[in-house]
Amino acid sequence: MKKFRVAVLSDNPSTKDPRIWRITKTLAELGYEVTLFCQKEKGDREYDYIENVHIRRVLDYKLGTSVLIDKYLIAHFQLREALLKEERFDIFHCHDPETWPMGYLMAREQKAKWIADSHEYFPDYIEKRYYGNDINKYKTAVQLTKNRGNYIRYADGIITVSEQTLNVLSEEYCLTCPKTVIYNTRHSDDVISDCKQKIRQELGLKEQLKYLVFAGNIMPDRGIDTIIEMVKLMPSHYKLVIIGDGLSVDCVERESKISDKIIYLGRLDYKDLIKYVYACDGYLYFPHHYGENMLGNYKYTIPNKLFDAIFSDIPFFTYDGFAFSECVKKFGVGIVYPVELDLISIANDIVDKLENHTFAKESFSKAKSYYSWENQKYNLDNLYKQILLDKFEKEEHNEEFASTK
């Protein structure tokens, strides 16, 4: 029986995106012959074979959405040359719009199928502040992203990170091909088995204190100022652990020096980050809600931090109006607050819920089961089967037509 060949295209180094690596390994586990084409960092080997996955590090530059056209054109040529050196592929699995044009072109040439895998709500995810005062560069980046995004109309399969993203894209681009949602989550057994008290002792966290955590990009609109003020309104034995870096680091460092309620740890390796999340008592995530002006990507996608909280058995406290808010409400693994509610009311309610042990272990068990990578594996397998069935039917039809001529 033929073993189908899959080319996975990524704009990142092989180790920088856990979601891409999980999907790639899962495809190998499902019986596909998989080659990951990705960016090459200094010191990387050009070729590896890890966990039944061929890795080709071929890009000297990112494929990108900037206006530095020379480098990004070189990267596209490098990717195409590497793909042409291989035997033909049956499916091109293309992560994010940067890889979609090449996936589309190669699939047409090789009479293969291609999948548009969108990690973001790409029509609206580029933030103006990263471009400073260069409005032309910002507008060019937005236009390039939209141009590449239009390739989704011709995909043979679609993957997104949330149902909301899939629904909006399906409506905007009139998508009729096979589609699925694959959450950026973990395997069900990817949890810390040691008791929380042991981990707290290891990390130097005191038994008598309550620790709340925020981990991720420390940006102004991620609500870091909101949660700092919120924790200051709580009793003295409540502390806030902040992990990460970003534009608001100076503010966070200043607060950690003047307030004993704020503990700033900087950027940590993921395995260490997870230990702290697991050891804490609750997760705070109160991004600024801009109403109609809110970036679509914030509204429709689901951050890893929600799954970090769920798999650590700690409640997730946040605002309503986001895709991840619906996940919290669905399983009761936290509390969702109206954006107009004052901070003192939210702070008091969080304290009340934690002091009264409101959250049941069963809620987290059900959420972990539902969002487990095992379920995502099923969705991935089913999508591939639909796409390959369509490929078979068209090939058989073409063979029958040719035999009657």
UniProtKB/TrEMBL annotation:
It comes from the Bacteria. The keyword Transferase applies. Its EC number is 2.4.-.-. Keywords: Glycosyltransferase, Transferase. Residues 20-184 form the Glycosyltransferase subfamily 4-like N-terminal domain. Residues 196-357 form the Glycosyl transferase family domain. InterPro entries: Glyco_trans_1, Glyco_trans_4-like_N, Glycosyltransferase_grp1. This is Glycosyltransferase. It comes from Aeribacillus composti.
